[in-house]
Design brief:
- This protein is of the alpha/beta class and 229 residues long.
- It has eleven helices and seven strands.
- Strands 4-3-2-1-5-6-7 form a seven-stranded mixed sheet, with helices on both faces.
- Helix 1 crosses helix 2, helix 1 packs across helix 3 and helix 5 packs parallel to helix 11 (216-228).
- It is globular.
- InterPro entries: HAD-like_hydrolase_phosphatase, HAD-like_sf, HAD_hydro_PyrdxlP_Pase-like, HAD_sf.
Length: 229
């Protein structure tokens, strides 16, 4: 039986830059257009599934292949300085680390391989995400389910928890930063919301309990305290 289980968003949480925002801003519709859609997401007048699809489609429609996009991200995306240390500690203490992402599997795996060289550590991280379909240089995100988020993170968390076995009460952790993390935020015992990001504002608005963090070093310190009790 695991001591606990750590779920985390990927883009902007594990990584310092959100790869999807980076692609949209620099290779797709551009920052102003993305922020227009993002404001509607926060207001609740547009669902994440449709907005996110349009953002990513704009990158492909501008003629940028998936391979080119991945190459661009490998050059520009950095890992949170405390994530690798957190994964190592969790691995040593029988705590599964599960990435639950609205991003695309091929992109996440390429970045993970680039950012964490240790293959054993790479393989210890479970990934639940959307996929991607390519046709020549054209590509489109393929959503994991039919929810308004495209990937209902709550369902993935429940599946991963059942797979892990009997996780002690109060020891399911989730780390996130944005709108797509809302369903996950209500699914775990302790929520870590990244400072200065949309999830903090949503939690305040909807009275969701959370701990604010700046890096995974903050998260690891808190997890150690909880696990030791």
């Amino acid at each position: 039986m695991p001591q606990a289980i750590l779920f985390t968003d990927w883009d902007g949480t594990v990584t310092l830059q959100d790869s999807n925002d980076m692609l949209t801003d620099n290779l797709g519709m551009g920052h102003p257009a993305r922020m227009f859609l993002n404001d509607k997401l926060i207001e609740g007048t547009l669902n994440f599934r449709d907005a996110f699809y349009d953002m990513l489609a704009s990158v492909s429609d501008n003629g940028h292949s998936l391979d080119k996009c991945i190459g661009y991200l490998l050059e520009h995306v950095q890992l949170d300085p405390g994530f690798k240390e957190t994964v190592v500690w969790c691995h040593e203490n029988d705590i599964p680390v599960v990435v639950v992402s609205s991003g695309m599997d091929r992109v996440i795996r390429a970045l993970l391989k680039n950012l964490i060289e240790d293959e054993k550590l790479q393989n210890s991280i479970q990934i639940y995400s959307n996929s991607v379909e390519t046709d020549g240089d054209e590509w489109r995100i393929i959503y994991k389910d039919h929810s308004s988020f495209g990937h209902d993170k709550h369902q993935s968390i429940e599946h991963a928890t059942a797979k892990a076995g009997d996780v002690p009460s109060g020891k399911r952790f989730y780390c996130g930063d944005g709108v797509s993390d809302v369903s996950a935020a209500r699914s775990c015992d302790l929520l870590f919301a990244k400072s200065g990001k949309d999830l903090v504002n949503i939690c305040r608005r909807d009275n969701i309990n959370y701990i604010e963090f700046n890096s995974f070093q903050d998260i690891l310190a808190q997890i150690k305290k909880v696990v030791s009790t």
